[in-house]
Amino acid sequence: MRIGKDLVAASATPVVLGILAEGESYGYAILQRISELSGGELEWSDGMLYPLLHRLERLGHVESHWGASPTGRPRKHYRLSSQGAATLAEQRRQWDVVGDVLAKVWPDGPGGGGSARLALGGA
Amino acid sequence: MTLEERRELDELVATWREWLERRDALSAHDIDELEGHLLDRVDSLRSAGLHDDEAFLVAVKRLGAVDELSREYARVHSERLWKQLVLDDDPNGGGRTAASGDLGAPGAPTSVLRRANGLAVALGLGVGAGLAVKVADLIGVDPTFFLRNAAILVLPFLAAWFAWRHRPPVGALAGIAGAFALAAVVLNAYPFGPGAGTAAFATEPSMTELLAAVHAAVALWLVTGIAYAAGDWRSGDARMDFVRFSGEWAVYYLLIALVGGGLSMLAVAVFGSIGVDVLPFVGEWVLPCGAAGAVLVAAWLVEAKQRVIENIAPVLTKVFTPLFALMLLALVVAAALQWNLVDANRDLLIAFDLVLVVALALLVYSYSARDPLVRAGWFEWIQFVMLAGALVVDLVVLVAMVGRIGEFGFSANKTASLGLNLILLANLARAAWLHLGFLRGRIPFLRLERWQTAYLPVYVAWAAVVVVAFPPLFAFA
């Protein structure tokens, strides 16, 4: 299964902020974590993460500083700012609402409920 | 890994870096970051059993298409796009045309073909603007007609240039055309009275006429910006791009006017020395056509040669912001020492409004050239001093204005000054507050920029009020 482009784009910010809420991290590790958490199903081309991180930095949601990898390569680390934490909480509330609604219209769990799938198919 | 393999990989990475460095949207630091990522990915693929070159190819592929990636970077760092057109000139800038799918965005990379034709189109429109002015002159309209209609005659050609260049949607063009039509009707259908105290000279404009003309020019300029933003006038980035354009355009126009004026005087003197009087020709043809045409030529220059001024703009603001801050402080001290601004004459109060406009322009212009991620430094403190000084001056002038209005009642001139003053006060107060937050590291720079771009419609709205409502309110006096 491949997750649609719009859904990937919409979820990118909360996912990245959520991962940074676990602690300071850098691009490659964030992507590894996303792939690990989603079982490889939530993926976008690696490069796209960086413009997103820069956008979040510009908005003041994350802060960055240059460090080095264990092998001595320069590496840019990102960490959540207090404003980013507030944004994450807000986004989380919004996603909870969406999740609740979806859970109510699809009560039978994944793959179940023939009528719900039919309705979706007709949309 | 053998030394041989290591060298091979280094070479591949160096070639890849070089390829990315041609993208103006990516800074060296961005590429460092991407390179770190690439090498991390290569390491993990290699530990999964791939050879160096295979691992490299897979890692590069996983980074995604370079065009798409650089476009995404450009979207985040729009101030870098601003430099893009000139680097476009680089004949080695291969792969650039692939990015031309995004012509809609302002300042987006444009294909070589469109750029080459740009000058011809700009010159054609410039000639058109000159002719429009000249035709109006030849059919014998009175001089105040030009005062009222200068913007309406010339700016549609600028809008046409933007339309050709940035391809705004039809709806946006219709809106712009509507604004021009409305301004034309209002400015020419209103029965403006003769100028105060100079009734003998019918050519003297009345105060409401003068105010309407000036405010119409400001409003129409900003409305023309909708075409520049390719219809995307809600976007803060697009508005900031138009602010940049306006500043650079003013610099170019001034340069052209200076050189053009000097050349014309030289021509008059040289022809005069051989007994040919070219002064009437210069006055009747060169000056009006040149002044109108230069609007388009300056617009073309801004977009074609952005980097030249790009280096001057920060220098200009850096030089003048401290000087201006000092001047504002001196003004505050002077106002405190002799509290007689209420008695000051009317012209002086308008001069104060102008001072505030310049302070704000210096602020916005320096915002437009600033890297938003750089932390606040000494320059931002000076800007804050300037803002605080401007705020105090604004309040002093406000008190003086209210005093004058209380004493002599409302007039068109005083009300227009008061309105502008209040609008500037609101902007300056909020800007100073945000600036303080930025200095203390509490507010990201983006918010400061957004506040200024979000405020632009207020100017349009106020200018529209002065154009449309003031003349009837003040009996066309």
Count up the helices of chain B.
18
Structural class determined from secondary elements of chain B: mainly alpha
Task: Name the strands of the widest sheet of chain A in spatial order.
Answer: 1-3-2
Estimate the helix proportion of chain B, in percent: over 70%
Which structural class should the secondary elements of chain A be placed in? alpha+beta
Report the radius of gyration of chain A as a whole number of Å: 17 Å
How would you describe the oligomerization state of the chains in this entry? heterodimer
The most extensive interface, with participating residues per chain, is: A-B, 22 and 29 residues
What is the domain tally of chain B?
Answer: 3
Average pLDDT level of chain B: 80
Q: How far apart lie the N and C ends of chain A?
A: 19 Å
Rough outline of chain A: globular
The strand count of chain B comes to 0
Proportion of strand residues of chain B: under 5%
- Helical stretch tally of chain A: 5
| Strand tally of chain A | 3
Give the second-level CATH assignment, the architecture of chain A. Orthogonal Bundle
Major sheet characteristics of chain B: none
CATH topology of chain A: Arc Repressor Mutant, subunit A
Order of SSEs of chain A: HEHHEEHH
Overall description:
The complex is a heterodimer of chains A (about 120) and B (about 475). Chain A is of the alpha+beta class and about 120 residues long. Chain A has one domain (about 5-120): Winged helix-like DNA-binding domain superfamily/Winged helix DNA-binding domain (Arc Repressor Mutant, subunit A, Orthogonal Bundle), CATH 1.10.10. Helices cover about 60% and strands about 15% of the residues of chain A. Chain A contains five helices and three strands, in the order H-E-H-H-E-E-H-H. Chain A has helices spanning about 5-20, 25-35, 50-60, 80-105, 115-120; strands at about 25, 60-70, 75-80. Chain A has a three-stranded antiparallel sheet with strand order 1-3-2. In chain A, a hairpin with a 5-residue loop joins strand 2 and strand 3 (about 75-80). The longest helix of chain A has 24 residues, at about 80-105. The radius of gyration of chain A is 17 Å and the shape is globular. Mean pLDDT of chain A is about 85; it is low at about 115-123. Chain B has 18 helices and no strands. The N and C termini of chain B lie far apart (about 90 Å). In chain B, helix 2 crosses helix 3 (about 50-65), helix 8 (about 145-165) runs parallel beside helix 12 and helix 11 (about 235-275) packs antiparallel against helix 12 (about 280-305). Chain B folds into three domains: about 5-110, no CATH class; about 115-305, no CATH class; about 310-445. Mean pLDDT of chain B is about 80; it is low at about 85-115 and about 195-200. Chain B is mainly α and about 475 residues long. The radius of gyration of chain B is 27 Å and the shape is globular. The interface between A and B is medium-sized, with 22 and 29 residues. Chain B: This is DUF4153 domain-containing protein. Chain B: Keywords: Membrane, Transmembrane, Transmembrane helix. Chain A: This is PadR family transcriptional regulator.
